[in-house]
Specification:
This protein has 93 residues and is α+β, with helices and mostly antiparallel strands. The protein is 35% helix and 25% strand. The chain has a four-stranded antiparallel sheet, with helices on one face. A hairpin with a 2-residue loop joins strand 3 and strand 4.
């Protein structure tokens, strides 16, 4: 696992959901190689889909840009060590 505490950069999630996001991210780093971004992201997405219903998206990496629309109350961007985590539920039209 990467050393250090998660630092939230931006979010509109409820605090309990934020804590679960960071906990699941930390657990995923224990399960997968720190450079296996795809497996880490897939694990986090699966956990969120199971807990909060389908439609969640997750991006993990050290350098990425993004532009998206999300459902209110479902967005978090944080980093843990050198890795960035973006988790959100896509907006329904």
């Amino acid at each position: 696992m990467l050393e250090g505490k998660a630092k939230v950069e931006e979010t509109d999630m409820p605090v309990k959901m934020q804590m679960q996001a960071m906990s699941i991210a930390s657990q995923s780093l224990d399960l997968f190689d720190v450079f296996d971004y795809q497996s880490i992201a897939a694990h986090i997405k699966k956990e969120f889909d199971e807990r909060y219903g389908s439609g969640w998206q997750c991006v993990v990496g050290s350098n990425f840009g993004c532009f998206f629309t999300h459902s209110k109350g479902t967005f978090i961007f944080f980093h843990l060590g050198t890795l960035n985590f973006l988790i959100f539920k896509g907006a329904t039209l």
